[in-house]
Write a structure and sequence with these properties.
By secondary structure, the chain is α/β, with parallel strands linked by helices. Helices cover 51% and strands 11% of the residues. The longest helix has 17 residues, at 148-164.
Length: 391
């Protein structure tokens, strides 16, 4: 008999684990921190737990004066945040912006030598080998922002826009648009029907591509089961992005088209004034933990008042026992007035265990209003909840 093959779901999970546990996945955060800050109403007295991702948003929250605990099961994501922390401590603003704003520099090795001493040993060992990701002559696409698996997808999409769809001239016009009306008009009249073909969208939403973007199988199924499936979901995403902000000012998307941030359109940690405040001491408000959220919380003793769970709940949607265990620790460590935010590929929060839902007081109207302003636009829902005490 021929050897048995893994079931499709198991195969997708194996592919996702292979990508996620062996690679840098996210080279920038894919959640809008302006929405997060308003949702959580962060204060200096807050203590925040956040999934690290690329660390941009952990640094953003630290600018409120809050203390931030960044947690990620993928050590490479924490190595990236530690590289940013070391650069803030050791570099001048211009050198720091060369790396993380421009996406690399001809002086990368020289700049790295100036911050290397400020790295913890595990991160130093990692970047001694991987700092090439910031060297234009060696980096894929000549930019760090085409590195990692998400950067690989971004670069492939850029190549397709140039040479496959032959849309690059229109993309440049979108980037030059001076008003939302001009941008939306151009997008609707000349770009949308050529860019968002059924075949292309099905490829983007396939089990082969989704793991490269850090999308686990349970979340992929949520999206596939939405009205219109992946093509309808992705069309809605791009329609929202084109209507919520000018593309050239929407750094989440423009960095993947250009390979760099501009001084005017970038995460807050890359703004000169914010860099100065972080360097002045606020960067010390951020620390990292490599492991699961449950594993991190089991080691903590000090209360946490804000939990930023990104789309992490979707990752555990097939494992209610793990969800219940993690939420038990969240409820145990929650301080007075604690609140939580998370995003999902699903339309609602009802996939959470009933025992969890009973202790969450959702602010649905405010969440929906903020969700409409989110510049990333790739999630089906956004949730804000206060944590109710046990009965």
């Amino acid at each position: 008999m021929p050897p048995s093959l893994p079931a499709p779901g198991r195969l997708a999970r194996l592919l996702f684990d292979s990508v996620h546990l062996r690679n840098l996945v996210y080279n920038q955060c894919w959640e809008d921190p302006a929405v997060d800050r308003e949702a959580l109403r962060l204060r200096p007295e807050d203590r925040v737990l956040v999934i690290t991702s690329a660390g941009c948003n952990a640094l953003d929250y630290a600018l409120t004066g809050a203390r931030v605990l960044a947690v990620d099961v993928n050590p490479r994501q924490n190595h990236l945040l530690e590289l940013k922390r070391a650069g803030i401590r050791a570099l001048d603003f211009e050198s720091f912006f060369e790396l993380f704003g421009a996406g690399g520099s001809a002086r990368t090795r020289e700049i790295y030598a100036g911050l290397r001493h400020a790295l913890p040993e595990p991160s130093r060992d990692h970047w001694d080998k991987e700092i090439r990701l910031f060297e234009p002559g060696r980096a894929r696409g000549r930019s760090f922002y085409y590195g990692g698996t998400s950067g690989l997808v971004a670069l492939a999409a850029k190549v397709w826009l140039r040479h496959g769809a032959r849309l690059w001239g229109l993309v440049e016009r979108l980037l030059d648009a001076r008003s939302l009306e001009e941008q939306k008009g151009l997008y609707r009249a000349e770009v949308r029907h050529r860019l968002l073909s059924e075949g292309f969208l099905r490829l983007v939403g396939s089990p082969a591509v989704m793991p490269l973007l850090g999308v686990p199988e349970p979340q992929r199924r949520m999206v596939a089961g939405s009205p219109g499936g992946f093509p309808g979901y992705l069309r809605d995403c791009l329609d929202h992005v084109m209507s919520v902000a000018l593309l050239r000012e929407n750094y989440f998307w423009s960095v993947y088209l250009t390979g760099s941030y501009s001084r005017e359109s970038c995460p807050r940690y890359l703004q000169r004034a914010s860099f100065g405040r972080l360097k002045g001491g606020l960067v010390e408000n951020v620390r990292t933990f490599t492991g699961t959220v449950t594993g991190c919380l089991a080691r903590e003793t000090e209360p946490i008042t804000a939990f930023v769970l990104l789309d992490h709940m979707d990752w555990l949607a097939d494992h209610p026992r793990l969800l219940e265990e993690e939420w038990a620790w969240i409820f145990r460590l929650a301080g007075p007035g604690a609140r939580v935010i998370f995003r999902s590929g699903g339309r609602d929060e009802l996939f959470l265990p009933l025992s969890v839902l009973r202790r969450l007081l959702f602010e649905r109207e405010r969440a929906e209003e903020l969700h409409r302003r989110d510049r990333v636009g790739t999630y089906a829902s956004f949730h804000i909840a206060r944590l109710a005490p046990a009965l």
